[in-house]
Design goal:
By secondary structure, this protein is mainly beta. The chain has two helices and 14 strands.
Length: 218
C-alpha cells in the first residue's frame, strides 16, 4: 500500500558529534494543501525519530497520528492517539511512502537572518508543483539524507539530502503565501525512555484478529 505523506515541514538542533537529540515543535498552515492546520512535534534520537501530528481540518475535526521512523531498517510504524477505536499500530516499509518532491532544484541565496536564535540561510527550492522559500540552519545537524525515503513529499528534506547538508528548515513559505511551516520551539536534550517506542498498550494490527479496524489510507 502507498501512504501519501506530503509533509511540509520539518526537523531539528545539535551541537555535538553524535547529532541532535531533543524535540522540535512546528506550526503548519494549509497542511498538504488541504486548508487544515497542524501542530508537528518531532522527537529526534541518535538513530530514529518520531513525529506527532495534530491535524485540524476545515470542519474542526482533529486527528492525532504518531509516526516512528527507523532509517537503518527503512521501516516506519504508525498509530493514532485519538478516537475510541482499538489501540493498534501499523508497520510499513519506507518504499510504501509516496510523494512528488524527489526531484527538486535548489538555489542557495546569500540572504541570512536569525530565526529563534539560530543562524539561517535562504534557499529557494522548486519542482513542478511549486516554489518555496526555505530558511535553513546548519546549527541543527539533522541528517536529512538518512530520512529522505520517508519524506518523498517534503521539498525541504529532499533539498537538504540532495545538497548533502545536515541542517533543518526553520521556516518554509510558498511564494504565494498559501502554505507556511514555522518552527515554534527547539529543545535539545536527552529524550525520556520509551519516547521512540510504541506504547505497550498498542498491538500490531492483524486484519484477521481486528478486521473492523481500518488500515492506513493509501
Amino acid at each position: 500500500m502507498k501512504l501519501k505523506l506530503a509533509i511540509l515541514p520539518l526537523c531539528l538542533v545539535a551541537l555535538h558529534a553524535f547529532g541532535f537529540e531533543g524535540t522540535v515543535k512546528q506550526s503548519v498552515t494549509n497542511f498538504n494543501g488541504s486548508g487544515a492546520s497542524a501542530q508537528m512535534t518531532w522527537y529526534i534520537g541518535s538513530g530514529s525519530c518520531r513525529i506527532d501530528m495534530n491535524i485540524i481540518d476545515k470542519d474542526l475535526k482533529a486527528n492525532n497520528t504518531v509516526l516512528l521512523m527507523n532509517p537503518s531498517g527503512q521501516s516506519m510504524t504508525m498509530y493514532e492517539t485519538s478516537g475510541t477505536g482499538e489501540k493498534v499500530y501499523y508497520q510499513m516499509n519506507a518504499s510504501a511512502v509516496s510523494g512528488d518532491a524527489m526531484n527538486v532544484m535548489v538555489n542557495k541565496t546569500t540572504e541570512t537572518k536569525k530565526i529563534g536564535g539560530y543562524n539561517c540561510e535562504k534557499w529557494t527550492v522548486m519542482n513542478t508543483s511549486g516554489s518555496y522559500d526555505v530558511w535553513i540552519t546548519r546549527d541543527i545537524d539533522f541528517n536529512a539524507a538518512a530520512y529522505k525515503e520517508f519524506f518523498k513529499g517534503s521539498m525541504e528534506i529532499q533539498a537538504l539530502a540532495q545538497q548533502g547538508v545536515k541542517g533543518f528548515p526553520m521556516l518554509t513559505e510558498t511564494r504565494n503565501g498559501t502554505n507556511a511551516s514555522v518552527t515554534d520551539k527547539v529543545t535539545p536534550g536527552a529524550l525520556p525512555a520509551g519516547t521512540l517506542s510504541v506504547p505497550a498498550e498498542y498491538k500490531l494490527y492483524n486484519p484477521q484478529v481486528s478486521p473492523h479496524v481500518a488500515p492506513p489510507k493509501k
